[in-house]
Design a protein that fits this description.
Layout (H helix, E strand, L loop, with lengths): L10 E2 L5 E4 L4 E5 L2 E6 L3 E4 L7 E5 L8 E3 L7 H4 L2 E7 L2 E9 L8 E4 L2 E2 L2 E2 L3 E4 L2 E3 L10 E5 L4 E5 L2 E6 L3 E5 L5 E3 L10 E10 L3 E8 L10 E4 L14 E2 L5 E4 L2 E2 L6 H5 L3
Length: 267
């Protein structure tokens, strides 16, 4: 029996790719066409990529919709040499799929989720739940816990939030985020923006920017109006980037952390 169908566990290829068999039923659709339907997906982590993607046994992919890529981006995806364009309903998506060079994954096809800011397949599902942005990492945890800690947030010396009823969100690999009831936030000091971001663990966030003076990056404040069920406790609450504001918890001023968002914020 193939090692892909036996014992679970993360394995690493000579190319530095990590992978493990998945147990979730995964489907990907383009319009009304199901392009992928697999009960044996493989989660793949490429070197220097913090989030996983899926690769699927060829038998679970509509290979009749794939064409050899006309302009393959050779050198990308850990040295992959075989890329495919996807043709569905008269629309062609270049380099939508590829095969990893690793021998262990040679019988599998991986799909991009976004190319040039656009989605490749319109909808992805794990079991009956639609998922977004990228597959959820089974080794990552997100917990939203109501608390009675005293949290105060300052920007340029101005107190913009003060509460004894925050919800603390613990997410693997990131600093604690402090979600604060709107009644305890000076939202009059901020301006709504049209920026939005998606998270496969939390949902879609809307943002505000600081209206005052000072060197404060835009979109420093966010909220999940309709979070995913796992973090329902943060619904409608307000959070601030620890990387760009001053947060004091129970009288202790927190250091501003350096994270994947630091460069994005221009800090």
């Amino acid at each position: 029996m193939s090692p892909l169908t036996t014992a679970r566990g993360i394995r690493t290829t000579p190319e530095g790719i990590s992978w493990e068999p998945g147990a979730r039923w995964v489907r990907g659709r383009k319009g009304d066409v199901t392009v992928v339907d697999s009960r044996h997906p493989v989660l793949v982590w490429e070197p220097d990529r913090p989030v996983p993607l899926y690769a699927f046994p060829r038998a679970d992919v509509r290979e009749d919709l794939l064409r050899p890529a006309q302009n393959p981006p050779l050198g990308k995806h850990t040295g992959s040499q075989i890329f495919y364009d996807l043709e569905v309903g008269g629309e062609t998506v270049e380099n939508a799929a590829w095969v990893f060079p690793a021998d262990d994954l040679a019988g599998h096809i991986a799909f991009a989720w976004f190319l040039h800011g656009e989605t490749v397949l319109d909808h992805w599902y794990e079991e009956e739940e639609e998922i977004f942005i990228h597959p959820r990492d089974p080794h990552k945890r997100v917990d939203a816990l109501p608390s009675s800690r005293h949290v105060r947030v300052e920007i340029e010396g101005t107190v913009v939030a003060d509460t004894h009823r925050p919800v603390l969100l613990f997410e693997t690999g990131l600093p604690v985020r402090y979600y604060i009831p709107r009644e305890d936030v000076r939202l009059d000091l901020f301006t709504p923006t049209d920026h939005a971001s998606g998270c496969p663990y939390k949902g879609t966030a809307t943002y505000w920017s600081w209206s005052g003076e000072g060197d404060v990056p835009p979109n420093v404040v966010w909220s999940y109006l309709e979070p995913l069920p796992a973090v329902a406790a943060v619904q409608g609450l307000i959070a601030f980037y620890n990387e760009a504001v001053d947060i004091t918890v129970d009288g202790e001023r927190l250091n501003r952390p350096t994270t994947v968002f630091t460069q994005q914020l221009g800090r």
